[in-house]
Write the C-alpha cells for this entry.
Amino acid sequence: MRHFPTDRTIRALHSRLLLSAAAFLLLVMLVGSPFPAEAAELIVPTGYASINAAIAAASAGDTVVVEPGTYQETLSLKDGVAVRGRETARTVLSGGGTGTIVTVSGSISATISNFTFTNASTGIHVANNTLSVDISNNVFSIGTGTAIVVQSSPGTSVANNVFSGNGVGVSRDADISIANNIFANNSLAIADTSGSSSNTAYNDFFNNVTDGPPGGSALAVDPVFVDPARFDFHLQEGSLCIDAGDPNAVFDDAIDGTPNDIGAYGGPLADPYPFPVSGLTATADPFTGTSIDLVWPPNLSYLVTNTTGTQGGYWVYYGHAPGVYDGTIAYNGDPSGASPIDVGPDPFFTLLDLIPTTPALGQPIWGNGSLRLTWTPSVGATGYKVQYGTVSPAENTIDVGNTTTYTLTGLTNGVPYRVRVSAYASATYYIAVSVYDGTAAFTESVLSPEVSVTLAQPTESGPSNIQVETPDSLAPYPLLPDSGGSCFIATAAYGSYEAPEVQALRAFRDRYLLPTTAGRRFVRWYYHHSPAAAALLNAHPAYKPVVKAALLPAVAAALALTKAPVPLAAVMVLVLVATALPAVKRRRAGRRTGPR
Amino acid sequence: MRRALILAVLLVLPTAAYASDMLLAQPRWSLEVKGGVFAPSLENFSGYYGQSTMPEFALSLAYKLRPQVELGAGVGASWATGSALAVSHGTLAGKVTYDLYPVNLFVLLRAVRSDEQRLIPYIGGGWTRMYYRQKVQDQGTVSGSADGYHVRGGLQISLNELDERASSSMYSFYGIMRTSCIFEAQYASAKEDTTSTDLGGTAYLAGLLFEF
C-alpha cells in the first residue's frame, strides 16, 4: 500500500528546505565562503606600506611579495603565507643592529625566501614548530649574531642560501634539512646539538673558522662570488658550486634548467635578475666634441660573462632629460642608435656622432606678411633653428624650439625670402646602463644609477635645402574700406595693417582730420584714389622702399602729434606753421613781382 | 528692368479709383517674411566667389496708410564665401567671407480692389543703407556701409480663399486677416563713397505676407 504525501507533509518539507537555505546563507555570512579563495599576491610597498601590514592582510595560500629596498621591521610569519623578496640582492631586511628580524613561533607552515638579511642579532628564529618552514634563496650577512636559530622545529628546511659574515650560520637542535647552501667566512657554519646530520647535504664550506657537521656530498671550495662587498653573491665562471647541488631534477635551476647551483641563486625559487651595473662613468670626447665615452665595471656572473656558453650583454640608455631615455641620435648614420642600444658583452661603449640628421624643408606657405614653414623631423634633434633673409638665409636666425612647423611673421609682402632650417641636439645627455644575462629569457637588470655629461656645445645638423617664397597680401573683392577707413597705400608699403606706422597715420586721421570739414574732404578724396595706388604698389613691390621714404615725414609727424602730450603737440603745430608761413609769403611775393 | 517697373506702376495706379469703395474693416499692418537669391551688380563676383548669386533672407514690417498704400521698414541678410586676390602672386588665395545687411525704408503700393481679390500686384521703393562686412583670412575684417535706393515689384496671391476655415482660425488666434504668398523682384543700388563700388544688385524673393 503506497502512502501519498498529504498537504501537511508537503508544507513541512518546504519549511525544512527554507530553514536549511537560510541557515546556509547565515553560515556563509558569518564564516565566509565555503569555497577556497584564490591565492593572491600582496605587494609591498605599492599595495601595502609595510611587510607586517601585508602579512596581517594575507590569508592562507597568499604570497607577500616585497619590492627592492631596505626594510627595518620585526616580522612574525603567518600560517600558510609565503613572504618573498623580488630580488635577493636588493631586497634587504635589516635588524638595525640588534634583535631578531623574523620569528616563526608555534605550529605553522610558512616560507621566507629571496631576501638579504643584515645587521641583526638573529636573522630568523624558528621555535616549537611541528610543521614545515622553508627558508630558501636568502643571503645572510648579519654580523656577529646567528643567522638562523631552529629550536624544536624538525620540519624546517634551509636550502640554497648563502651564509657569509655571520657569527653562526645555522644553530639547530634537530636534524633539519640543510642543503645546497654556501657557508663562507663565518665564525661557525652549523652549530648542532642534535648529533645527527642525515638531512644535511650538498653544502659548501669555505673559509669558516669552524664548519660544524658538513653532512653528505659537501664541498670545501671557494665559491668565487662576484662581489661580496656589495652583496653580489652570484657565482663567477669556474666556480665549483655551479651545478653542484642536489642532482634531483626537482631542485634544478629554474633560470637555465641545469642542475642546482649551490648558493642563493640556484634552485627552482632563485630570482632571475642580474645584479645591476654600478660605477658607470661618462666622458665627453674633447677631440670630436660629438662623442661620449662610457665605461662601467663588468657584471662577472657566469650567466652574463663566460667563455663557454651564451654571454649576456648590456643596454645603454640615453636621453636629454633625467630619467627620460628617448635619445634617437643617428649612431654613425645608423638609426639603430635609438635608445636603448644593445652594446653586447663589452663593458664600454662610445656614443658616436651625436649629431641630428639634416631636416628637409618643404615649400613655405605664404601669408599676409608671413611664411609658414614645415620640415621633416630630424633624428636626435631637441630643437631647430630657422634662418631667413631676402638675399641670404644667414641674415636672420631664430631658435624655434622642438617643433617642425613655424610661421615667420612681420615680413614684407611682395619681397621674396630665402629660408632654410637646421636641427640641433642639446649638449647634455643623461645615461644609464642595464645588464642582461645569456639565458634564453635574456633577463634584464634594473638600470644603473644615472650619470650625465655635457658636450662642449650643442651639436647641430647641416642646413636644410633653401626654399624661396614671397609673403603676400590678400585683396578681397570688392575692395572696400573699413568703417573708419584704412590707409591703403601705407598698408601696402609697410606690409600689414597692424604696422605701427599705419596705426600712427590712422590715429592722426581720427584725431586731426576727421573733426574738420576740410579734413573729411581730404579723407574722402584719399580713399577714392588710394586703393588703385595700393594695388599698383603691391603689384610692383620694388617701389615700396621709395614710398616708405616718402611717407616717412608724414609718419614721423603723425607719431609726434599723436603720441606727444597735447601742449607739446600744439607747440609743434605752431612751429610747423611758423616755419611754413615765411615760405608761403616768399612764394606769393615771388608771384607778385614775377621773374626778374 | 525699367519696363517691368513701368508695367507694374500701370497695373497699380487704377486701384486708387476703387479706394473709396473698400470696407472699413481693413488690416492696418503687413509683415513680410521672404527669401531667395541676390545677384550683386559687381561685374566679376562669380570669379571670386564661385557663383553669381548669394542667398538672401529678409523681413519687413509696414503700416497701411490706406489699403493700397504702405510705409515700412525692412532688414535683410546675404552672404558669400570665396577667395581673394594674392597681390604679388596674381592668384586667388585665402578665404573671404562677404556679408551684406540691407536696411530699407520704403513706400509700397498694392493694387487692391476688393477683399476677395486673389491676385494683387504691388510695387514699391525707397531708401537703402547697405551694411557690409568682409572677413579676409589672416588679415582681419573690414566693415562699413553705403547708402542708396531700392525698387521692387511683385505679385501677392491670397491664400484665404483656399481654406476659409484656416484663414478664420488665423484671424481668431492671431488676428491675421489675410495670408498671402508673395513673389517679387527687387533692385537695389548702394554705392560706397570712397571707392564708388555699387553694393546693390537684383534679388528674386518669395515668401509669406501676413496682414493684420
Notes: The beta strands of chain B are 29-40, 54-66, 69-86, 91-110, 119-136, 140-158, 178-190, 201-211.
